[in-house]
Amino acid sequence: MHTITLDGETDFDGWRKAARLLAMNGVAPADVTWIVAGGDEPELFPAAQNTPLEDVRGTFNVPAPFVALAKTVILHRDPQRFALLYRMLWRLRGNHDLLQLATDPDTSKLESMAKAIRRDEHKMHAFVRFREIGREPKSHFVAWFEPDHHIVELAAPFFARRFADMAWSILTPDLSAHWDGHKVSFSPGVDKSMAPSSDRLEEVWLTYYANIFNPARLKTKAMQNEMPKKYWRNLPEAALIKPLIDKAERVTSEMIAAEAQEPKKPQRREEIMAKSHGTASAEQFNDTSLAALRDEAADCRACPLWKDATQTVFGEGPKQASVMMVGEQPGDKEDLAGKPFVGPPGQMLDKALKEAGIIRDKVYVTNAVKHFKFVPRGKFRLHQKPATPEIKACRPWYEREKALVKPELVVAMGATAAQSVLGKVVPIGKTRGRVIDLDDGTRVLVTVHPSYLLRLPDEDAKAREYENFVHDLRIVAAHLSESARAA
């Protein structure tokens, strides 16, 4: 009788070396006991004295697919996997075609175990939810997951590729994986209490999840098939699932019973461009109000950004304002709220406006691009700079807003806004802080976008640039004061 002790639950190299030596010495599978060093399971019978194994010269071959299959199956949690793999190795020496016999009990069992590993890996890829600890640029993202099998090392490279630009840790009871931006490392498993229970973006994610939940497409059995309830406890959105399911039938019935409405005409880019050809004027749009324009923009399909955004984010402010402030595009929070400048850049803008002596309600605030452009990173949506075709496609909305608001001064915040307002790419550094006169009598002031200030890692540079931004806004404040005296 032989007792083989492996270094760990996934010690494939140790198993392979021992299995080869046992087979070369003619040790039958029934005469081998496999155990893992430091395992919790008590032995029912004391191990017998091992018969010494000779280092027999020579070799033997098994089909290459068996090696790949064994590397996968050894990750299974079944304690009998080592014995099963050795029994298959023993049998393959006499029948190389054994893996092709689907009806063979050992082949069927191994394939079933490999399938369970692949499914568990897929579930880990799908149901890991990171939570942020700290704030940029020193933030770290941590997730908790409870795999059915020993798949952490197998699954970790996927997360390193997908979230290569953020430092993260995935904690599990067996093993924890970590990524520092350069390499994956592993540490012992931990208790669930070590994982964070929420983060600052939890509410945003729940709002987004609730808004994309479509009751008309709900198939409860199919959903639970793909996302079994055992995974729900580790998902932030789990608290919403049951109420959304319960509500789905009622909402769907109301949708069916509701009276059909006249479909809105799709917005055609040619019509928009035709209306705003050249310089727009109030006379061109004298039959349009800002509210009507906002409703019209809600159906804009002039560029592909509408497909992934939650909604069109239109401008806000007085119907006729002396100053119009133009940003780049809505961010994540603006996309969810449907209002411009309500996220962190908006808070920075509010602070600077107040310091410059400007009441935000007195100015009209909008964006050059009306839909949020982003790249998904797990449950986060990271901002992407709009491309020139997207800026051009959205420029008619800015022209029409401008024609209705009739501002005397337009403040272009950032390169995208400057490109839209001036109709060409301009360097911010050279044009910033000076007033440019346009042919239609409007004046333009170019400055930086508030998000630029948030991205600066150096605190001294951030303070310096913030003061420069406030200085630019004081030019706007002076214009407002002059305009008020003239009135």
Give a topology summary.
Elements: E1 2-6, H1 12-24, E2 32-36, H2 64-73, H3 81-92, H4 105-127, E3 131-133, E4 140-144, H5 152-162, E5 168-171, E6 175-179, E7 184-188, H6 202-212, H7 220-226, H8 238-257, H9 269-275, H10 290-297, E8 323-327, H11 332-337, H12 344-356, E9 364-367, E10 374-377, E11 380-383, H13 388-405, E12 409-413, H14 415-422, H15 428-431, E13 435-437, E14 443-447, H16 450-455, H17 459-486
Parallel strand pairs: 1-2, 4-5, 8-9, 8-12, 12-14
Antiparallel strand pairs: 3-4, 5-6, 6-7, 10-11, 13-14
Question: What would you say this structure looks like, in words?
Answer:
This protein is α/β, with parallel strands linked by helices and 487 residues long. The protein has four domains: 2-122, no CATH class; 128-194, no CATH class; 202-256, no CATH class; 279-486, Uracil-DNA Glycosylase, subunit E, CATH 3.40.470.10. Helices cover 42% and strands 13% of the residues. The chain is built from 17 helices and 14 strands. The protein has helices at 12-24, 64-73, 81-92, 105-127, 152-162, 202-212, 220-226, 238-257, 269-275, 290-297, 332-337, 344-356, 388-405, 415-422, 428-431, 450-455, 459-486; strands at 2-6, 32-36, 131-133, 140-144, 168-171, 175-179, 184-188, 323-327, 364-367, 374-377, 380-383, 409-413, 435-437, 443-447. A five-stranded mixed sheet has the order 3-4-5-6-7, covered by helices on one side. Strand 13 and strand 14 (443-447) form a beta hairpin. Helix 4 runs parallel beside helix 5, helix 12 (344-356) crosses helix 17 and helix 13 crosses helix 14 (415-422). The longest helix has 28 residues, at 459-486. It is elongated, with a radius of gyration of 32 Å. It starts with a strand and ends with a helix. Residues 42-49 and 272-287 have low confidence and may be disordered.
